[in-house]
Please model this.
Amino acid sequence: MNNIDVAFKFKKTGIDDVILVSSDRYSDERGFFEEDYKLSDFSYGEIRERFAQINHSFSRRGVLRGLHYQKAPHSQGKLVFVVRGKIMDVAVDIRQSSSSFKRWVSVILSDGEGHLLWIPTGFAHGFLALEDSDVIYLTTSEYGKEYESGVRWNDPDINIKWPTDSPILSEKDGNLPFIKEMIERGELQP
Model:
């Protein structure tokens, strides 16, 4: 294993299951080339899931999307990267039996860095566009409307330190429940 040629670096974040991935970028006067995903390298980096869907969103500066997740049996792991712009990407552990339940981590992802964020199942995901941004994310299962759910972006029990108090939100995201309500209704996975 010591001599394996891996084009990616894998770094644990403040929550071990959420991993910041960096890829090698090859630049010259023409531009650059980088690999954003390679099954064998990701397996080596302990991300062994296969992907079922690719999503692309464009968000204007100040837009906050999230905190979203899909319920079992269609839970989604997500591999997130920015092709244009800059975002504050956030993962919140919503696994009630986890030692990091209700803890969150955030990273700044931007074009030109070659960073990706791996967010496993059992986490809610959201991001704030710090610039006009195109975001791509690969998911481990297909989207199912009947399984979509989410947690309020400004939930006081989670207390994410967003750099704004007044983001641009969809009506749906602005009305997501607080985690306390979800626990009382038995909506979270153990």
In short: Residues 10 and 46 are 9 Å apart (CA to CA). The longest strand covers residues 86-93. The helical segments are 39-44, 171-174, 179-184. The chain has a mean pLDDT of 93.
